[in-house]
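Thread title: Can someone regenerate the structure for this chain?

I was given the following input by a collaborator and told the matching structure tokens would be attached. They weren't. Posting the sequence so someone can regenerate them.
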Amino acid sequence: MNLTQTGMSLTSMLSSELKSDLDAVNGMLRERAASEHVNRIRKVAAHLLGNGGKRLRPLLTLASARLFDYNGQDHILLAAAVEFIHAATLLHDDVVDESEKRRGKLTANLLWNNQSSVLVGDFFFARAFQLMVRASAPRSLAILADASATIAEAEVMQIVAAQNLETDEARYLQIAKGKTATLFSAAAEVGGVVASAYEHETETLAAFGKCFGTSFQIMDDLLDYKGATKSLGKNVGDDFRDRKMTLPVVKAFSAADAAERKFWLRVIKEGEQRDGDFEHALELFKRHGTLEQTYEEAVRWSNEAKERLDGLPSKQPRELLAKLADLILSRAS
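Best answer:
Regenerated them for you:
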């Protein structure tokens, strides 16, 4: 399934109610991303927020709120806040990773500079908190504030783990859950909170989001080795060249013989990469079935996400959440 098909499938899943909610979120993002005084902020915001994002995180907030028959407008505020937090982390990540592509286009740090990306990211975080305090759900502020701290902590943890071949699957999952799954979890949870769902129901939504986000991150790491550059929106092999200890590498190193370990030590720990090394890495993955195992892990987390939905109201938004858990397994970007 390519990016266009994924977008069409997502759109076809939305009820008219959720479609109008998502349109309202997009309108709020455009409005709140604007700066009255600084044109650079407007340009960076238009480049990133209008750059083809699927809005999965705010969609979890909207669907969770509608699952409990919420009829107010605070879920729009919180969904937009979630997307601002996500956008801020993207801007910061691209600076840290020295990325050149995001969603098929040049990154903001490359088009402008690192300083602009970092500071506009800070601006987005500020906008997120402005929206949070406007929502009449104080608990949602705590949830999203905690999530923001966890994401930052996990990003630093990932830097420490980079090029470290001692990184095991437990540490990998800790990082993946912290930097990616945490925001999915918070996005789903605050939708239930603003709708005054019972605590056990909001906990269920949070657990769903955590599993959903873990599956999403594993698929993201898998696509770096088996995706197509055109549909992926970035260069395939970037994680390899950046020497990141993603799940495919963790699994391959764990299964490696002595000669293979020397290869991984050279290309990951020592950073001595030569022509043909990426192709050799793919051969090692094939030899050990590493990519298939990685996909199976994504499937396992997706299935667990769907199981977490049991016991919640059986309504269209719940069906959407379950379908989204399936959809991320066929994503190409």
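The mean pLDDT is 88.
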